[in-house]
Amino acid sequence: MKTQLFVYLIILSNLTVSIAQNDLNKAKELNSKSQNEQALKTLEQSCLMYPNDANIQLALARSYKANGQNSNSLKLYRQITSQKNAEASSILEYADLLRTETEYSAAKEQYIRYSAFNPALGAYFAGACDFALNQLSNPSHCKIEKLNSDNTMAVVYKDEVRTNSKSIYDIAIKEAIPANPTAPILTKKTTTNQNRLDEILKTSSIENTNISFNEDGNMVAFSQNSNLHSDRTNTTIQNRKIFFANVNDKGNWSDISEFTYNNSSYSVCYPSLANNGRTLYFSSNMTGGFGGYDLYVSHLIDNKWTSPNNLGAIINTPGNELSPFYKNGDLFFSSDWQQGFGGFDIFRTSHYGISWTDVENLGTCVNSSKDDYN
Predict the structure, then answer these.
(1) Is residue 162 within 8 Å of 168, Cβ to Cβ?
(2) CA dist., res. 296 & res. 141, Å (int)
(3) Quick one: which of 368, 369, 367, 347 has its CA closest to 358?
(4) Sign of torsion over alpha carbons 11, 13, 19, 24
(5) 155 beta partners
(6) Burial class (CB in 10 A: 0-12, 13-18, 19+), 251
(7) Alpha-carbon span 218 to 215, nearest angstrom
(8) Which of 57, 129, 133, 286 has the fewest CB atoms within 10 Å, counting from its CB?
(9) What gap in Å lies between CA 311 and CA 83, rounded to an integer?
(10) Measuring CA to CA, how many Å separate 268 from each of 67, 210, 226, 323, 336?
(11) Phi and psi for 165 in degrees, rounded to 5?
């Protein structure tokens, strides 16, 4: 009888694990289809059935965060990381979320705790919390004007900032562009069509892209998605490429061409034209960099783009550097590694002679604990 009961309990335990794993797989599939709310509901139901399943709890905490429910996510992370055998990744994610919510002192405690697994990384981000606390105690004295627009999409065109509301402001108050500005899908097939700037600003798509004009306004660079493939972790990756187009006096686009150094194996994106279209700054996760996405520069010489040069260790980090914008010797960009307030912050460096100056965080006037994109 005892043997039969033991066998029954083993079968029941295996069945429970199997059902919980099926729920995790279902949620993962829903997320891959951008059905995040349905994935969240699936995980909530699964967590009610299996409240002590650590994998379900962690997946639900991540799902809450992905859906903007950070308070619920924090509660779960607090519960998950309170265990003595809490995994290092869970502690790091909890610390990052606390930092995003401006709970810098609590985040510092978790980063210090994480340093038991990774001393260098834990100490670095604990120091970033000290930086944020110090900056908040000495706030910047500046004023930011909000662009009068119902949409956050804005581009610089002939030294003016244009939005979909057709408001035009001086370049000095250029607004930070968000992570997912809207833009139409443009491919070589559209070379016979004319695309006005106004249409670009009003058209939505799933693209993660930005638009950059040269100073004369007769050349534009933009990035768009290329192929889909899976890496070794079976994660779907959507790479991006940079394209150029000519722009006439009426704002019509034509003669779309690819950047010479696009590659289907990695992303080349966030273009920023400078030197009236003869210099291109961009971000890429190509191999040989310092971290995830690095910033690069290429020059147009005799109608040919030079091989991209990495901007070096002063600017690039083990993290990600995105959204470069060059103006009058200053390079503005976003980074999730340089010491900041959380997520991506906007930084500035200047170019004098052959080197870049030390990177400067633009401070509390511009940056927040959330993602800030230049």
Answers:
(1) yes
(2) 33
(3) 347
(4) negative
(5) 162
(6) middle
(7) 8
(8) 133
(9) 43
(10) 28, 12, 10, 12, 18
(11) -90, 5
Residues in the chain: 374
Q: Six-digit token pair at 284?
A: 């890429």
In angstroms, rounded to a whole number, what is the distance separating the alpha carbons of residues 321 and 249? 34
CA 299/CA 281 separation, integer angstroms: 9
Token pair 């709890």 in the structure block, residue: 57
Q: Which amino acid is at 201?
A: L
pTM, entire model:
0.74
Place of tokens 């909000």: 146
- Rounded Cα distance between 226 and 40, Å, is 29
One digit per residue, the tens of pLDDT, for the chain of length 374 reads 555 544 444 444 444 445 556 767 776 776 665 667 888 888 888 888 888 888 888 989 998 998 889 999 999 999 999 988 899 999 999 999 999 999 999 999 999 999 999 999 999 999 999 999 998 888 666 776 666 555 556 677 777 766 654 433 332 222 323 333 333 333 333 333 344 444 444 443 334 457 899 999 899 998 877 544 444 444 455 788 999 999 888 778 888 899 999 998 999 999 999 999 999 999 999 999 998 999 999 999 999 999 999 999 999 999 999 999 998 899 999 999 988 888 899 999 998 777 899 999 888 888 888 888 76
Measured between alpha carbons, how far is 91 from 116 in angstroms, rounded to an integer? 11
Strand, coil or helix: what is 334? strand
- B/e letters for 315-348, b = 16+ CB within 10 Å, e = fewer, are bbbeebbbbbbbeeeebbbbbbbbbbbbbbbbbb
